[in-house]
Amino acid sequence: MNQEDVEAVASVIRRNMPADYICAAAAIQAMMDRGWGKQQWLPIETAPKDGSKILISGGYSSPAVTIGRWAKDMKSPHWRDDKLGRYPITPLHWMPLPTPPTTEHEGD
Asked: Could you tell me the pTM of the whole model?
């Protein structure tokens, strides 16, 4: 994923996400500012299955990148798209979510 891809994802999130996901767009912007586009997608087999939210991609038509998690609280554990509430899904890759930006300005 290059810087252009990261900017495209951030743009889609800003346009389409409900208010509680706007912080994800801010986090992605902070990641872009820190050169996050150099981070690599990892195989889904290596993703955490503790219910923590992560970026997931692939294995379904739309969106190409979303926030999801492993849901083990159902009868049949599965990957879940938290943005659209779809499940089960079969993502192929994942990345950790970045640390949310602080309200403090750097250098203050």
From this structure: 0.55
What residues does each domain of the chain span? 3-96
Structure tokens at 74: 């159902």
Say if CB 79 and CB 70 are below 8 A apart.
Answer: yes
d(CA 98, CA 63): 19
Q: Encoding tokens for residue 52?
A: 């923590």
With tokens 């990892």, the residue in question is: 42
Task: Count other C-beta atoms under 10 Å from residue 70's C-beta.
Answer: 20
Phi first, then psi: what are they for 63, rounded to 5°? -75, 160
Strand partners, 54: 68, 96
Report pLDDT for 101.
Answer: 77
